[in-house]
Amino acid sequence: MTLLRVENLTVSAGARQLVHGVSFDLEVGERVGLVGESGSGKSLTAMAIVGLLAPGLAAGGSVLLDGQQVVGQRDRDLVPLRGGVAAVVFQDSRAALDPLMRLGDQLAAPLRRRAVREGRRLSAAGLRDEQISALQRVSIDDPVRILGSWPHEVSGGQRQRIAIAMALACGPRLLIADEPTTALDVSTQAEVLDLLDALVRAEGLSLLFISHDLPVVSRIADRVLVMRHGRVVEKGPTTRVFTDPQDSYTTDLVGAARRLEAALENPK
């Protein structure tokens, strides 16, 4: 069953087109990677899918998310889709979290929205239980302390886990992860990837994973789309694309990733 269908998607800034005719489907439970260098249009494509383009940018073409058109819709009409169908984990958890609000209050908001959507009354005690459960779900130790903390009082890895907990709190079917591990150190990056993999697998979520890091994408995605200058230049099963690339740009990306990996394994 197709959860997301993108057809001839464009993103423009006035007369300047930044994303050109991107098309792909994402099935229920499938994991798709979007890869390419910085400025290739990966994040613009992801934000257009959920109608979160910055002011001054406009989307064209068609995006059907759970059968509902996103392109051209009013922002208020997209609110039920955000969280309820698709949720986003951003690259910089510091920017995604309000520095002036305790983490527990920030986590409470999506939990309350989900309760309203499901027609449930959520008492203060019930909310507290759900907050603790949401943090335990992402392997946060000492959730009670974390709920009372400010964003600057926890580590980068904990902030990203909390951002994932907030994204999942609304009960989405599609998780869009936009460079979710880029700002983390290598060991924390591996932990967050393992967490995402386990959560997606356990809950049967679909995943759109955006990254410039090919080894990371090869680890987590079933299929991959390679973007350059706002266009998809190659797509297919991840193993095939990364072992037998058909486009010269993909070949260059794979070669660069292999050279970097070799250099890290055999430092001089």
TrEMBL record:
PROSITE patterns: ABC_TRANSPORTER_1 (PS00211), ABC_TRANSPORTER_2 (PS50893). GO terms for cellular component: plasma membrane. SMART domains: AAA. It is a peripheral membrane protein. Keywords: ATP-binding, Cell membrane, Membrane, Nucleotide-binding, Transport. CDD domains: ABC_NikE_OppD_transporters. It is found in: Cell inner membrane. Its main location: membrane. Residues 4-254 form the ABC transporter domain. Pfam families: ABC_tran (PF00005). InterPro entries: AAA+_ATPase, ABC_Ni/Peptide_Import, ABC_transporter-like_ATP-bd, ABC_transporter-like_CS, P-loop_NTPase. GO terms for molecular function: ATP binding; ATP hydrolysis activity. It comes from the Bacteria. Belongs to the ABC transporter superfamily. This is ABC transporter ATP-binding protein. It comes from Paracoccus denitrificans.
